[in-house]
Structure formats: C-alpha cells, structure tokens
Specification:
Largest sheet: 2 strands, antiparallel
Strand order of the largest sheet: 1-2
Strand content: under 5%
Shape: elongated
Radius of gyration: 27 Å
Order of helices and strands: HHHHHHHHEEHHH
C-alpha cells in the first residue's frame, strides 16, 4: 500500500509540474507577443525609446532570439551608443561566433570607442571568415595606430601580393568625404606612415611617392609627402 501511495504521489507531482510548465510557457508567449506588438507600434510612430524598451523585454523573455538582438544592436549603433551596440553584438557572437553582422557591429563600435585592440579581434575574425582585403587593411591600420608595426607590415605584405592592380578602396579625406584610390596606393601610403613613425623619413618618402604615382589625386599621400617637406 505504501508503494502505491508513493507512486500516486509521484504521478501527481509530475502532472502538476507539467501543468506549471505549460502555464509558464503560455505566459512567456503572451508577454512576448505583447512586447512584439509594442515594438511594431513604436516603429510605426518612430519612437526609438519605446522600440528599445520593447526589444529589451523580448531579450529577457527569449535571450537566444538573434533577430531581436540584431534589431537592438542596429538601434544602439544608429544612435551612437557604441558601448551598448558592442555589448549586444558580443552577446550575438557568444551565440553564433561567425555571425558577420555581429562581428562588424562589434568591430566598428570598439573602433569608435578607440578600443582598437578589441576592434582588431573582431576584424580578424571577419577576415578569416571572408578573406576580404578591405578588412585586412583596416586591421593593418589599427595595428599601426597601436604601434604594432611588425604585425601591420606583415599584413600589408599579404595585401601587396593579393590586391589586383585595378582594385580600389574608399578612404576618408580631411573634409570628411570619401575618396576612392587604388588599393595598392593605400597600402603604399600606410607603409610610409609606419616608416615615418619608425624614424625612417627617406623610406617613408619613397612609399608616399609611389602611392602618388599609382593614384595622383590621393589626398592623404600628398599630405603625407608635404609633411616631410
């Protein structure tokens, strides 16, 4: 009789547990639907503050929903909240390490925060996943900013043998606009900046001159050469 009572108790507790789980699941689904409706209405009214709040509620209810994290990262990044966009992007990377959107948001956010070492980590992950020359150039540039000249030159050496003669890259001008120059000219200019930092002015002059031979209108290279004079 005692065994029968224990069996009945176990079955009863199991039933109660399943019912509680079903109720919890229904509650979560209901709250998620409400948060989604709030987000859609806030988007319709262009209310960024309420949009963020609704997305945050959804992340609490379903932490693994990367589509919600993506939308949240876009809002933070678009409003210049780079600490927040970097943190959200890193949460996405923890879930999906090769998510290119998250890697890019994290990299650019850290770069804007001048946390160049952290930015390099994310750019390098992007480079390994895409083999994109522009990304490796950005890695080299950040390494130059951190005085990691050997690493920067090593990556520039890879680019020297990789980029096509007619390949171009967009670089910022002094007025904030973007100038397209031959990729090989950008590589030569960065090599010149590294040589200049290392105290070798003549080597730097050679690189700047070569950059201008490749792209005569290259503003940054011309400014670099003028600086030597």
């Amino acid at each position: 009789m005692k065994k029968i009572k224990l069996l009945f108790l176990a079955l009863f507790l199991g039933f109660v547990g399943q019912e509680a789980m079903a109720q919890d699941s229904a509650y979560v689904n209901n709250e998620y639907a409400k948060a989604m409706a709030l987000y859609n209405r806030a988007q319709r009214y262009n209310d960024v503050t309420v949009s963020k709040q609704a997305l945050l509620e959804m992340t609490l209810l379903n932490p693994g929903d990367t589509s919600v994290l993506k939308s949240l990262a876009e809002i933070y990044f678009g409003n210049g909240q780079f600490v927040s966009s970097a943190m959200v992007a890193m949460d996405m990377i923890n879930l999906h390490p090769n998510n290119l959107f998250a890697l890019e948001v994290a990299a650019v956010s850290y770069e804007n925060l001048r946390l160049y070492d952290k930015a390099i980590e994310q750019y390098e992950a992007m480079w390994l996943a895409t083999d994109n020359s522009t990304i490796l150039y950005q890695v080299s540039y950040l390494q130059y900013l951190l005085d990691r000249y050997e690493q920067a030159n090593s990556n520039l050496g890879i680019l020297t043998g990789k980029v096509a003669a007619d390949e171009v890259i967009g670089l910022a001008k002094e007025d904030g606009s973007t100038q397209e120059v031959k990729f090989s000219a950008a590589v030569e200019n960065l090599k010149g900046l590294i040589a200049l930092d290392q105290g070798n002015k003549e080597k730097a002059r050679g690189h700047f001159t070569k950059a201008l031979e490749i792209s005569p209108e290259f503003e940054a290279a011309q400014n670099s050469l003028n600086g030597l004079k």
